[in-house]
Amino acid sequence: MSQNSPSRWAMIGRETGRAVTAVVIALLVALVVILLTSADPGAAFQTLLTAPLSSNRTMGLWIDDVAKLTLTGLAFSLVFQARQFSMGVQGQVYMGGLFAALIAMSPIGATPLAIPVAMVAAMLAGAVYGFIPGYAKARFGASEIVSSLMLNYIAILIVNYLIRAHLAPQGTGQLATAKFPDTAIYPAILPGTRFDLGILVALVATFVVWFLLYRTNWGLKLRLVGHNPKFAEYSGIRSSFIMVSAMTVAGAFGGLLGSVFVQGRAFGNLAQNFDGNLAFEGILIAIVARSRPLAVPFVALAYGYLRQGAQLMGIRTDVPTEMISVVQAIIILLVASSFSLPGKKFFANLLGRKTTPAATPEAAK
Amino acid sequence: MAPLLEAISIGKTYPGGTVANDGVNLSIEAGEVHAVVGENGAGKSTLMKILFGIEQPDRGELRLDGKPVSFANPREAIDNGIGMVFQHFSLVPSFSVYENVVLGSEPRTGIKFDRQKAIEEVRALSEKFRLAVDPLPPVGQLPVGQQQRVEILKALYRNARILILDEPTAVLAPQEVEELFVAVRALVAQGRTVIFIAHKLPEVLAISDRITVMRAGKTVGSVNAKEVTEQSLATMMVGREIALRVDRAKGRGDLACEVKALKLTAESGAPIAEDLNLKVHQGEILGLVGVEGNGQAELLEAIAGLRAIADGVVYLNGEKLNPLSTLERRELGLASIPEDRIARGLATGATIAENLVATRLADKRYVRNGLLDLKAIKAQALKLIERYSIRAGGPGYPVGTLSGGNMQKVVVARELSEQPKLLLVNQPTRGVDLGATQFIWKSLTEARDGGAAVLLSSADLSELLALSDRLVVFYRGKIVAAFVNSDDLTAETLGTYMLGLSRQDPETMRAALQ
Questions:
Q1: Which of A1, A227, A364 lies at the smallest CB-CB distance from B347?
Q2: 8 Å CB contact between B466 and B244
Q3: Is B246 a domain residue?
Q4: Using one digit for the tens of pLDDT, what is the confidence trace for A194-217?
Q5: B65 and B210: one domain?
Q6: Does residue A344 register a pLDDT over 50?
Q7: Which residues form the signal peptide (chain B) (predicted)?
Q8: DSSP one-letter string for B240-294
Q9: How much of chain B exceeds pLDDT 90, in percent?
Q10: pLDDT at A192
Q11: pLDDT of residue B493
Q12: Which pLDDT belongs to residue A343?
């Protein structure tokens, strides 16, 4: 391929360079926040940087996050490549989680079929939930951003209601279902940790999404629609079908993430507000990975590490939990903005690369 | 005396290794119209971007009034009296002319924008340089030629001594070009200097005093306009003899496409075109003449299936096209080279191979069981790159990395790689260099000789006259005249019909429409 396409390695190198720069800046900002709020900033910062590797259990936490971030990142990558801005992964996660839980709590839940059947049910539920905003856009011109966001609330509230009113064990007052039977919970790869089937599901999903996008007719059409919808129309590609199907397929992966959540070892039951807004972080993953499915797991690996480090810092040190959220938000802000804003020259200047001082708009002001 | 502006052995290599300028020398005297000509990809635009501070040279030196200067950004170039008018305007359509002109350096009283003063200044400026533009209407309502003058006023308002015009005539009708030239002469008469980038050699010879020719990132030489001919300039640009003559069709075949009583409306319901009746035969090129916006482009879109037909019928080889989808029409042998290759004809972010296969995704050779045959797609792309001599790194490169001429060749390659039965062509060589133009013309005539019925629309009358076997003139959505092409037919004759100044009698028109 090398003489026929621009050097892939050079591109990967460049993109990685950008990501690393963003992460370094994010860490510097985090350091400032820690210095301002912690009595022992050294220890706190060290926790942020190293805690995820401190034990098998924390490694499990990290990898569990990576699996989930990968799946949501993939779902967003799919719709982004078709240049649709469906924000519906969270709703799909809840619908997927609900149906996975219903299967797990049904008689099937006690059989070896529990995991595959629940996964399929979750994917179908997610697909249906992804299809709705797509259809509304194709048929009525409804903005997919608005409709998918509203559908998220509907899904979360329906699931929360069902848990409280029907699915939680009667009389306990708890806001979660009882544990699923063991047959319905993902087996652990490292016993005693959250390192479970979820990561394999995520890696298989990565391959499947890559294959769909780059090896199938549908994927090429999807990408052409994303590059230039007018060109697609002119070429005879039915853009509205591609648009709706892209959102539907992405919905299936969102639904699958629902299954990974509720059937994973982290939960093993269906609880209220179980996703902790992780679903939305897929937007960040997809942006940094430039919607390339094969880059998604790597971005998830790096971002999941920072995310887990920040959470462990919140638990183990005196950095107030509010500040943890601030640091996380800053990380998201910096990483995302370095990829979506034309700040290349700014970073080049920061890194001391040779550019005339007035060459950047920032410096000219 | 030192030249007003000098560029000395400028070198510029883009990241990715494209050598855009390699030892370029340019010397501009005060008060002259200096044309820079060259094929697409010759490095003209890069050189202009360097002069205007958008790009910085890797090597070489700029001198203004004999003193070395460097512009880190356009602001500095403007402060030094250099103005540039781009091919794509940067105007705010909803703002009025005077607001656009003063935007960013508004006259003020205190902190208040002094509108009256702005209007007066703009009016005075436009009178001084004979750029008749009314300061008050919103820019979006003006024709393209007027918008271009607004851009020129913007530069003059900022005291540009040197004005760079980047392919100013590409978007203009013949009469508007004449008006632009009047303005350019007025500018020079008042001591300003104009750098004029162009493709069309007759225009270059008509307006410029001196001409610098670029080829493949280097300057070939500078000549006085009086001492060269179109042919010798073309040879300098391309580096070999070229012929811009086309063989006409030898004879036409059976009726291929018929348009009957076609009516097109805008989404608002306003009529765009009415009562269009046309017949195109196999092996002939029918030229659609008209100032842009008179319905030619919309007719082509409607036939291609990209625009709803309000009333009337289109037949291709006896089959009614109206109910068919774009894809079904393509399967009947329809091919189309759209007006705007970037907006419609290509997905610039996708690779060359993907663009070339995009219209054949129902074809068993490239797609089986929903899976892409990447080998076949790549082989086909390599074949077309070779056959259409597309200058590109390879089939895996994004189309957006190519020059305009090579992008257009990708479109032409895709549409003509299989002999079409009906070929719709709109602005096939807009913004395309001479070498590529010659190549595209040849491809079109080959498709015609292969039996295609061709509908050709172009803003370039010489192109229409060179290629068409018959021509019809559009004015306000109606066909007002029809001609069988001959050497006696001139652009001026067509022009009077294009502008609605005269109307053909129905008998003559019917005879030529058959």
A1: A227
A2: yes
A3: no
A4: 888 999 999 999 999 999 999 999
A5: yes
A6: no
A7: none
A8: S------PPPS---SEEEEEEEEEEE-TTS-EEEEEEEEEEETT-EEEEE-STTS
A9: 45
A10: 78
A11: 84
A12: 45
Contact B326 A236 (CB under 8 A): yes
CATH number at residue B458: 3.40.50.300
Q: At B233, is the pLDDT very low, low, confident or very high (cuts 50, 70, 90)? A: confident
Residue B394 lies in a domain: no
Query: How many domains is chain B partitioned into structurally?
Result: 2
Asked if B370 and A218 come within 8 Å (Cβ–Cβ), the reply is: yes
Last residue of one domain, picked from the residues B211, B238, B265: B238
Nearest to A329 by CA among A281, A282, A293, A361: A281
Examine residue B373 and state whether it is found in any structural domain, yes or no: no
* ipTM of this complex: 0.82
The percent of residues in chain A predicted with pLDDT above 70, rounded, is 88
pLDDT score recorded for residue B384: 95
Same structural domain, B124 and B167: yes
Query: Based on the domain organization, do B312 and B232 belong to the same domain?
Result: no
Domain identity same for B185 and B292: no
- B327 and A230: CB-CB below 8 Å? no
**Inter-chain CB proximity B343 and A230 less than 8 Å:** yes
User: Which among A5, A231, A237 is the nearest to B345, CB-wise?
Assistant: A231
Find the chain A residues whose C-beta atoms sit closer than 8 A to any C-beta of B.
1, 3-6, 215-218, 220-221, 223-224, 227-228, 230-238, 356, 358-359, 361, 364
Lowest-pLDDT range, A70-79, A110-119, B171-180? B171-180
Tell me if A255 sits within 8 A of A127, measured CB to CB.
yes
List A301's β-bridge partners, or say none.
none
Task: With CB atoms and an 8 Å threshold, state whether B396 touches A6.
Answer: yes
- pLDDT recorded at residue B18: 67
Do B152 and B54 lie in one domain? The reply is: yes
pLDDT band at B245 (very low <50, low <70, confident <90, very high): low
Over chain A, what HEC string results? CCCCCCCHHHHHHHHHHHHHHHHHHHHHHHHHHHHHHCCCHHHHHHHHHHHHHCCHHHHHHHHHHHHHHHHHHHHHHHHHHCCCCCCCHHHHHHHHHHHHHHHHHCHHHHCCCHHHHHHHHHHHHHHHHHHHHHHHHHHHCCCHHHHHHHHHHHHHHHHHHHHHHHHCCCCCCCCECCCCCHHHCCCECCCCCCCEHHHHHHHHHHHHHHHHHHHEHHHHHHHHHHHCHHHHHHHCCCHHHHHHHHHHHHHHHHHHHHHHHHHCCCCCCCECCCCCCHHHHHHHHHHHCCCCHHHHHHHHHHHHHHHHHHHHHHHHCCCCHHHHHHHHHHHHHHHHHHHHCCCHHHHHHHCCCCCCHHHCHHHHC
Q: How confident is the model at residue B43 (pLDDT cuts 50, 70, 90)?
A: confident
B358: in domain:
no
Whether B222 and B303 map to the same domain: the answer is no
Domain holding B37, by residue range, is 5-238
pLDDT at B16: 57
Minimum Cα–Cα distance from A236: chain B residue: B327
CA distance B80 to B419: 54
Token pair for B328: 């079904």
Question: pTM score, two decimals?
Answer: 0.76
B76 plus B122 within the same structural domain: yes
A193 versus B94: the higher-pLDDT residue is B94
Average pLDDT in the B170-192 region? 84
Q: Which of B208, B238, B268 delimits the end of a domain?
A: B238
Residue in chain A lying closest to B381 (CA)? A4
pLDDT by residue (tens digit) across A277-291?
899 989 988 988 889
User: Is B435's pLDDT higher than 90?
Assistant: no
